What we know:
By secondary structure, the protein is mainly α.
Amino acid sequence: MGNDTFVRAITHRSVGGKNNERLEFLGDSVLGIVITSKLYEVLPKASEGYLSRLRASLVNEGTLAEIAKEMSLGDFLRLGPGELRSGGFRRNSILSDALEAVIASVYLEKGMEAAQDFVLAIFEGRLSPEILPSEHALKDPKSRLQEVLQSRGHDIPKYKLLHVRGEAHKQMFTASCHIESLSILTEGTERSRRKAEQSAAEVAYQQLMK
């Protein structure tokens, strides 16, 4: 692999000059097509919706950062002084972006086949049909809760924003989920209203399934 391309792939924008932002953009697309193709191959009967949710669960920030940590990619990152002091080499967003950039560097230097081999190697163990999450497990908590309630003849839950706290750039939202017919009332607190409702729905779902 060309040294210049790899060095750029592990260089965060906080360093200044040539960094990995453009490579990250390219790597995201390469990663997407490789994972999409593999899922299409190993799950010939899966619906388009299920395949889309599976792909999203595999190429999201959390999974990519997890893989980057397994590779010790943080040890090689080139970060500016501020990011170094704040532990940027452990931050999920920085790790996942760098991994996408590294994928792009493999693609540019060695071609698509090598990039595919690289992606499948680092995702080894995560793409087996036996361990991929089920379609039901991938549904968001609100959808999952509503399906169970309707199947049991109950009304759909009602969600309410209870309060918003914190400064504009770091607000925390608290929402409730109320299932009146079952006297279930739960709360969730997250960084957005949507996530707060999802969190409250997840707690309600767990109570419902006990």
